[in-house]
Design a protein that fits this description.
alpha/beta; 48% helix; globular
Length: 324
């Protein structure tokens, strides 16, 4: 399992960054983009339109033909969470049996309440589902700045081999078999980052934001345990680590969305995965009888059930209790 040939499906900022990352690790990379104009532009300029100033590694072949992915030994599926089912379905006739398909999106599918590896398992039953998540911004990874993430697969040997195939001195994937724990950390932290952004946008102060992030992590942990996640995963890179990053930087689209909501301004229009995950996460928490007041408040703000001020008041007037 050397995974010498890797396909990256999705040429957005994160997909391009991971393509560069795999190429730096010595892999032969095929980067697939849906937009023919984007393909032609990247082939001609060797520059990503989604990451200005970032050049594509010479070992990356850019294509718009899905058939060009047929010889890949592993696939990184780098599309938004709500589009992952359609993208995976498009690979059904292209990949060989047992090929690892790694979800690189952080979210829960709306309506079905499926995690990303569950979507892959349903649409590509002959593939080996895996998930890549952790504290990482596309621009940092694309430029080769030091980054550590978590790569999870139910098969430990596959997880180890994928980590070796993608790893380099500046990109360090730690491997685990706790697939669900990694997925929960990535999905829940996006919702909590919106809450942290609202706190900043409303100028509630650093103390309030610290308390909110801490209590949010308690929610993430409760939900993770209810789903069978391991504690060390939730306190690791893909849980606490990603939460810290996403709740502290305007580079995070979810944090920026929260700031806009807190300031009463319209969102910028950039995709924020947490906006789609919030309702699914709140619904799943209710189904599992897991108390997640912050996530539920964010879901209510996003669907218009509560105003930002009402959501803040609902959290501040909760009964006093022990810290558990």
């Amino acid at each position: 399992m050397s995974f010498a040939r890797i396909a990256v499906v999705g040429a957005g900022a994160w997909g391009t960054a991971l393509a560069n990352c795999a190429a730096r690790a010595g892999r032969e990379v095929t980067l697939w983009a849906r937009d023919p104009a984007a393909v032609a532009d990247m082939v001609a300029t060797r520059v990503s339109p989604r990451l200005p100033g970032v050049h594509l590694d010479e070992r990356i072949a850019v294509t718009g033909a899905i058939a060009d992915l047929a010889h890949a030994q592993a696939v990184l599926l780098v599309v938004p969470a709500q589009d992952l089912r359609a993208a995976a379905g498009g690979l059904a006739r292209q990949i060989a049996k047992g090929i690892p398909v790694v979800a690189c999106a952080k979210g829960i599918e709306r309506g079905t309440h499926k995690f990303m590896t569950e979507v892959i398992a349903e649409t590509l039953p002959n593939a080996t589902p895996a998930i890549l998540s952790g504290p990482s911004f596309a621009s940092d990874v694309a430029r080769g700045l030091p980054t550590a993430v978590t790569l999870a697969c139910a098969d430990e040997a596959t997880a180890q081999a994928l980590a070796r195939a993608l790893g380099s001195p500046t990109f360090r994937p730690y491997h685990t078999t706790d697939v669900r724990g990694v997925e929960i950390g990535g999905a829940a932290k996006n919702v909590l980052a919106i809450a942290a952004g609202i706190s900043q946008g409303r100028k509630l102060g650093a103390s309030a934001t610290a308390a909110l992030v801490t209590r949010g992590f308690a929610e993430l942990t409760r939900f993770g345990r209810a789903c069978g996640a391991r504690g060390e995963t939730l306190t690791g890179l893909s849980g606490l680590g990603d939460l810290i990053l996403t709740c502290s930087s305007p580079q995070s689209r979810n944090f920026s969305l929260g700031i806009a909501l807190g300031e009463g301004k319209p969102p910028e229009g950039k995709l924020a995965e947490g906006a789609f995950t919030a309702s699914a996460l709140a619904e799943m928490a209710t189904e599992k009888s897991v108390e997640m007041p912050i996530a539920s408040a964010i879901a209510a703000v996003l669907d218009g059930t509560l105003s930002v001020d009402q959501a803040i008041e609902s959290l501040l007037t909760r009964p006093f209790r022990s810290e558990t």
